[in-house]
Write a structure and sequence with these properties.
- The chain is an alpha/beta fold.
- It folds into 2 domains: 70 residues, 2-Layer Sandwich (Signal recognition particle alu RNA binding heterodimer, srp9/1); 72 residues, Signal recognition particle alu RNA binding heterodimer, srp9/1, CATH 3.30.720.110.
- Helices cover 19% and strands 35% of the residues.
- It contains 3 helices and 8 strands, in the order βαβαβββαβββ.
- The strands form 2 sheets. It has a 4-stranded mixed beta sheet with strand order 1-4-3-2, covered by helices on one side. The chain has a 4-stranded mixed beta sheet with strand order 5-8-7-6, covered by helices on one side.
- β6 and β7 form a beta hairpin.
- The radius of gyration is 18 Å and the shape is elongated.
Length: 151
């Protein structure tokens, strides 16, 4: 069994996935538009709506599709958690994603990260960007997301 994150967009799924591919080192694996689906007859803007897209970023696959702009709302209460290998990469990714977006938390040093910040990008997707700090606590493992034995 696998769990994937699926992102809904208000008509710009392909643009968003191409942006992430270019700027986050991802790879668009698949994009299908409504007018390419077997038995489909939509034309015009409805035909260009993405009905299924896959993007690989590192070992993660994001799914995406367009929903009608009239029902689209920015993603709430869910963040894509982007863990990077250096403070410099965190700063680069944060700056790119923050452009034309909305910053919730500035990129800064914390007790658990050399850099951590949160934002919503220009496509309405919320991100947590982190470069994790090595931890030496019994309660926090070196990678604080991994499961640890509390005993």
């Amino acid at each position: 069994m696998k769990i994937y994150t699926q992102l809904n967009f208000g008509g710009n799924c392909e643009e968003a996935f191409r942006f992430y591919e270019k700027n986050l080192g991802g790879k668009v694996l698949f994009i299908m538009h409504q007018d390419e689906a077997p038995g489909s007859a939509p034309t015009g803007p409805a035909g260009k709506a993405v009905i299924h897209a896959r993007l690989a970023i590192g070992d993660t696959i994001l799914m995406g599709n367009d929903v009608p702009p009239s029902v689209f709302q920015n993603i709430r209460s869910v963040y894509i958690y982007l863990s990077v290998d250096s403070s410099e990469e965190a700063e680069r990714a944060y700056a790119i994603l923050a452009e034309d977006g909305q910053v919730f938390g500035p990129l800064q040093e914390t007790f658990y990260a050399t850099r951590f910040g949160q934002l919503r990008d220009q496509f309405g997707v919320s991100w947590s960007i982190i470069h994790e700090r090595a931890m030496n606590s019994k309660r926090l493992a070196p990678n604080y997301l991994q499961v640890i034995d509390p005993s």
